[in-house]
Specification:
By secondary structure, the chain is mainly β. The protein has helices spanning 2-28, 150-153; strands at 50-58, 62-68, 74-81, 87-90, 102-107, 114-120, 160-169, 174-181, 185-201, 204-205, 216-221, 227-234, 237-246, 251-258, 266-282, 285-287, 300-305, 313-318. Mean pLDDT is 77; it is low at 1-34, 36-43 and 124-158.
Amino acid sequence: MSVIRGTVWASAACSLLLIAGSASAQRERKPNAVPAPADAVRPQAEAPTIVGKVAAYEADKSITVEVKMRGGKSRQTEFSIVKDQTKIELLGDAKEIAVGLPVSVWAGKDNPKSATRIVAGANNARPQPGNRPNRNPPNANPSNPAEQPRAAQQPMGRGQSKGKLKGLDVAKNTVTVTTSNRATGKVETTYELAKDVVVLRDGKPAKISDLKQGGSITFKLSPDQKTAVGISETGKTLMAPLKSVDPEKNSITLTVTTGGRNAPPEKKDVTHELAKDGKVTLEDKEVKLAELKDVRPGSNIQLTFSVDDENKLVHIHYAPSRR
């Protein structure tokens, strides 16, 4: 009898093992996972060509990036900027490209000495995981800037932006501006002009009709973001370390870095004479050029040139670093 029981139990055990094995095999033989469709695969973002800090910058012309190497050495690489083709993005509190800012540069595939994209500044407003803002709210039309998040339309901060003047319509009393930022790329937006709109050109009062199409402008908007209350047109800018100041000759000398991807960086001194009607500012205060003699050599100075004459220096600005 015990032999029969043992045989029964052994048979039952074998049956259970066979059933378990069959179920396991069926699970393994389940249809293979269906591969994700090609359009569901998210392409990898292209890495920047170089990441470092801004060593020199000349608007619409060139940018030089400095990369720290081992042993305390550094390497500088210059890229040309193609007007209306090089995409420039500013992060965090950066209002303009300045020497010392963190920067990433993507070089052109056909011309590695030119920059196709520049991202400058530190993104100090990163959202926490699980609490990321929705850049495109439900039902928003990405092609319509009026339906974009307000932050996406204000790349330069609260109520103030930088862009290119696309056009003026005196009859309709409107201005059209082209801006570019990370969220929307290039966007053309039309704003009404306030009755008392403040217009500046080279820092001096001007008429709205004096503004040049395609010119670089800074514009300030009303609280509802629909009306332009201030427009200032400026020429090219240059930011570089200070070499010296000569009040007698009314001139300033900066040290700029030149050189390309395949050429070693080279520093050279450039001197510019301040226009008779030009101005000098120390932070937000207008001062005499002689007061900059106390500024430590090597400090970053920004020069702004005339809208109509790129060789005419109209503004020298120095803001001490607060680091």
